[in-house]
């Protein structure tokens, strides 16, 4: 069975789709799973042995995307997050079975629609994704190993006889709650006296403002900086070596959880952005 799974949005959103991919592969070991994802998530997908292939969504037109999808001859598609463009593309590609949440106008282009009220957060995001798989395979085993991501630790930042506590002030703009840089610095200063701990502030692409603010405000704080310049999988392997990863609820938090690194995370008061919708809180058992 040739299966397409669509989760072409941000880092954390794709991480919450991994359990659905895993249980489907375990249920149908001979199936071929292709994921339609954002380019930033490609290196993570390629490190998952339960994902066979990737298609990068570069934002092309529905007609161009449909041409790509049609060439792959998919038997069915699970769209974990839908919009009109990907819905129309699948319809144009004539994928026989197209499953998606029953939301928005886009639902008319799917052959099977599952009613989900994700904004009510009655389940976590990864559980909603699994529910879509269960709509076709009702007897599927929904258990999976934890942590789900397995990457060799990169200890390049680890000094001898010390453990790393990392602070990640930046975020992609999707989080509803975050501390400012000075508050992260204040927290770091409260534990800077611990001799067995190395403090590191990490920054990724797009975090230039946060890095500049940190350099201007850190004063005499004993902390190193690390700016990620490799792939997302490279950064995740480094996160795997940390004793603790401190951030807001953003993509890097989900990666830390998925690789098994303990996290300290800031959440908003709103229901959708609270820890009730967190992959870490809801026992992916990362």
Would you write up a description of this structure?
α2 (18-27) packs parallel to α6 (125-134) and α4 (62-72) packs across α5 (84-92). The protein folds into 2 domains: 2-134, Rossmann fold (3-Layer(aba) Sandwich); 163-277, Rossmann fold, CATH 3.40.50. With 286 residues, the protein is α/β, with parallel strands linked by helices. Residues 279-286 have low confidence and may be disordered. α5 links the parallel β4 (76-79) and β5. It contains 10 helices and 11 strands.
The secondary-structure class comes to: alpha/beta
> CATH-wise, what's the superfamily of the largest domain?
Glycogen Phosphorylase B
Question: What is the name of the CATH class of the largest domain?
Answer: Alpha Beta
Report, as a whole number of angstroms, the end-to-end distance. Answer: 29 Å
Number of domains: 2
Helix content range: 25-40%
Q: What does the main sheet amount to?
A: 6 strands, parallel
State the total count of DSSP E strands: 11
Strand order of the largest sheet: 3-2-1-4-5-6
Strand content: 15-25%
Outline the secondary-structure elements.
Elements: E1 2-6, H1 11-15, H2 18-27, E2 32-37, H3 42-45, E3 53-56, H4 62-72, E4 76-79, H5 84-92, E5 97-101, E6 112-114, H6 125-134, E7 163-168, H7 181-189, E8 197-203, H8 208-217, E9 223-227, H9 232-239, E10 244-248, H10 251-259, E11 263-266
Parallel strand pairs: 1-2, 1-4, 2-3, 4-5, 5-6, 7-8, 7-10, 8-9, 10-11
Helix pairs in contact: 2-6, 4-5
Key traits:
single chain, alpha/beta, Rossmann fold, 2 domains, 6-stranded parallel beta sheet, 5-stranded parallel beta sheet, 10 helices, 19% strand, elongated, disordered C terminus
